[in-house]
């Protein structure tokens, strides 16, 4: 017989319901087993294989040969590799600096109740539906120096060849990445902004705070967790960008946009040096993880205990 919860006469609390055969503890490991197996097969095992290959010589055809630390030594003695790391960090930093404020403003706006907001938001989120390759091909055609927009507006773009200089090529990469991925981060901030308790804004209005003060003193602090999450996604995505560079600049002009992920591709599929390519891949994983941990630690995100944003 099952005894239902009854209120206690002393404090009004309820006794626990007792049901035979029903446990009240956390789910067992078997519930997580499918996800753990999937993660191990498609993440951990490939990562271990890449780590092993980083200490071997392999051209993709013959049997791998142990090379010790040769691949790593050549990696750090390679000026193109060192340059590619700095370029990867530069593109990542520029992406964070451009996309973060833009995403926050658009997300907060999209969380409101303005007229036609839903329609405009839906149109703005269209780039999220397109693949990176499709977006890169689209903008490569639009910005083509021979028949694209720059060629028709030389008064604004000079000779029209945005891909002919390092500054122009990096600017194109940052712009295209911003155009495609800002909607994703906007969606994060839109959801977070809608979760902010309205009572905070009502209290601020009573105290005479305007829209700008409410944004900086209520909205931004409440979006703290979301900002950190968004920045980590930007960092990891920026350091592993590949498709955009492959289609838009091919690492040019020269090696001025040869970021580490693209250099890894060149080593593996053009030079058939899979050992060095594996070392670059492992280095990118380590750098991305390290930067993410630093962001989490410095921001105090790992100490957040509240279920409410920023508290």
Automatic annotation (TrEMBL):
Top-level taxon: Bacteria
Cleaved signal peptide residues: none
Stretches assigned to the ABC transmembrane type-1 domain: 85-295
Topology class, membrane: Multi-pass membrane protein
Keywords: Cell membrane, Membrane, Transmembrane, Transmembrane helix, Transport
Segments traversing the membrane: 29-56, 85-110, 122-142, 162-181, 227-248, 274-296
Compartments, record wording: Cell membrane
Major localization listed first in the record, in broad terms: membrane
Family: Belongs to the binding-protein-dependent transport system permease family.
Listed name of the protein: Sugar ABC transporter permease
Taxonomic lineage: Bacteria, Bacillati, Actinomycetota, Actinomycetes, Kitasatosporales
């Amino acid at each position: 017989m099952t005894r239902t919860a009854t209120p206690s006469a002393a404090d009004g609390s309820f006794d626990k319901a007792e049901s035979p055969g029903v446990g009240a503890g956390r789910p067992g490991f078997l519930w997580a087993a499918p996800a753990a197996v999937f993660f191990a097969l498609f993440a951990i095992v490939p990562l271990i294989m890449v780590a092993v290959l980083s200490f071997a010589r392999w051209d993709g055809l013959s049997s791998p040969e142990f090379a010790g630390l040769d691949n790593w030594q050549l990696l750090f003695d390679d000026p193109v590799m060192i340059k590619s790391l700095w370029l990867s960090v530069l593109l990542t930093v520029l992406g964070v600096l451009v996309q973060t404020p833009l995403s926050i403003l658009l997300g907060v706006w999209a969380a409101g109740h303005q007229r036609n907001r839903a329609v405009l938001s839906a149109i703005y989120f269209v780039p999220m539906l397109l693949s990176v390759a499709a977006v890169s091909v689209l903008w490569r055609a639009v910005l083509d120096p021979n028949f694209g927009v720059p060629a028709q507006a030389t008064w604004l773009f000079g000779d029209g060849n945005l891909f002919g200089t390092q500054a122009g090529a990096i600017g194109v990469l940052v712009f295209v990445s911003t155009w495609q991925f800002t909607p994703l981060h906007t969606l994060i901030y839109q959801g977070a902004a809608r979760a902010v308790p309205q009572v905070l804004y009502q209290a601020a209005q009573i105290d005479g705070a305007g829209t700008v003060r409410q944004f900086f003193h209520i909205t931004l602090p409440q979006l703290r967790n979301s900002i950190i999450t968004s920045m980590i996604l930007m960092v990891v995505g920026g350091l592993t960008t590949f498709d955009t560079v492959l289609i838009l600049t091919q690492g040019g002009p020269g090696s001025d946009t040869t970021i580490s992920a693209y250099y890894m591709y060149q080593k593996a599929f053009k030079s058939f040096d899979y050992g060095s390519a594996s070392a670059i891949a492992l280095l990118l994983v380590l750098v991305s993880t390290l930067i993410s941990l630093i962001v989490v630690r410095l921001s105090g995100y790992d100490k957040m205990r509240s279920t409410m944003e920023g508290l």
